[in-house]
Design brief:
Distance between the termini: 94 Å
Largest sheet: 4 strands, antiparallel
Mean pLDDT: 78
Number of domains: 3
Radius of gyration: 44 Å
Number of helices: 8
Number of strands: 9
Low-confidence stretches: 1-20, 22-27, 300-307
Length: 324
């Protein structure tokens, strides 16, 4: 009769258990260096304790003994004990990993490897797989909350049938979360693609559009003010030139006041020309910037455009000011 083990189900004992473990009693461990003799002795004692616990139905306690033995003396034969115990505990995925480790160990026995491959075939008949592909290898991936160590794109992992969650993370991007349902004997493929959040692009567009339009409005306002100043200076130059004529003889010399008014008129005319040229250039630049600015989803905040422009001139100087 079998013995029940702490909620782990029924266990087989006697000859059936030995056949399941493939290792009856304490196995002869692979030879190691002379200074590892003590570790080998300790590992054999732990194996003996584990086999006894397993025969009593204490699967979890037996697994701990086997794992401790392997940590002390990593003989591939111990992996068979670990894999078989995990399988009887219902941890088929972990059991398959232990069996795989045995098969990839160069010290594995070819005769026993055939039995291990047969057991792996039985396990794969009840498990499914998830293959994870990513464009960048610098990605950290978790499967059902457990990190995948040394992740490489295209890795295929055994999983129990049912719902599973894959979370991938990469610096500079939001996490990618994908849920997948796996059935036995089938492989589900998950492709990891990181995307820049749409909200970031909208934010950048608004900043660029708002800045360019603000500059355009500022330059346009200064250009308009320059045109106004040029017109005013032109009017003043015309008036002073007319006043100078009254102080000059026809086609003759002018008195001191006439000379002063003539000089002032010439200065105002020069200021008018410069103001017109600068104003026209600034206004044209502002119009071009405004027309070519990116479309924004909302207008620029109030208060960014010019609110008041002032023009003052006196003598040979011209001052243009404004408040924004």
């Amino acid at each position: 009769m079998g013995k029940s083990s702490r909620g782990c189900g029924r266990w087989v004992t006697g000859p059936a258990l030995a056949a399941a473990l493939l290792l009856n009693g304490v196995p002869g461990l692979a030879e190691g260096p002379p200074d590892a003799a003590e570790d080998k002795t300790v590992a054999q004692d732990l194996l003996a304790q584990g086999n006894q616990l397993l025969g009593e139905g204490e699967g979890t306690a037996a697994l701990e003994k086997f794992q401790a033995a392997y940590a002390r003396y990593p003989s591939p034969k111990i992996l068979i004990n670990i894999g078989t115990t995990l399988r009887q505990l219902g941890r088929s995925v972990d059991a398959a990993a232990a069996y795989d480790s045995y098969l990839h160990d160069p010290r594995a026995e070819p005769a026993r490897s055939a039995d291990i491959r047969r057991i792996l075939g039985e396990i794969d008949a009840i498990l499914g797989r998830i293959r994870i592909e990513a464009r960048d290898s610098a990605v950290s991936v978790r499967l059902d909350g457990k990190p995948i160590q040394a992740f490489t794109s295209g890795v295929s992992l055994r999983v129990e049938p049912g719902e599973h969650t894959v979370v991938a993370e990469q610096k500079g991007f939001p996490p990618v979360v994908q849920a997948v349902k796996v059935v036995a004997r089938q492989e589900q493929v998950i492709t990891i693609v990181f995307k820049v959040p749409e909200v970031k692009r909208v934010f950048v567009d608004r900043v660029v559009a708002g800045t360019q339009r603000t500059v355009a409005l500022g330059l346009g306002s200064l250009g308009a003010a320059g045109l106004v100043a040029g017109a005013v200076a032109g009017i003043v130059a015309k008036a002073r030139d007319s006043a100078a004529d009254s102080h000059c003889l026809s086609n003759g010399p002018c008195d001191a006041r006439g000379v002063e008014l003539g000089t002032s008129a010439q200065t105002s005319a020069t200021v008018s020309t410069i103001a017109f040229a600068a104003g026209a250039g600034l206004l044209a630049t502002g119009v071009v910037l405004f027309v070519t600015s990116p479309s924004a989803r909302r207008p620029a905040p109030r208060g960014l455009g010019p609110q008041r422009v002032t023009v003052a001139f006196g003598g040979s100087s011209l001052r243009i000011g404004g408040a924004w």
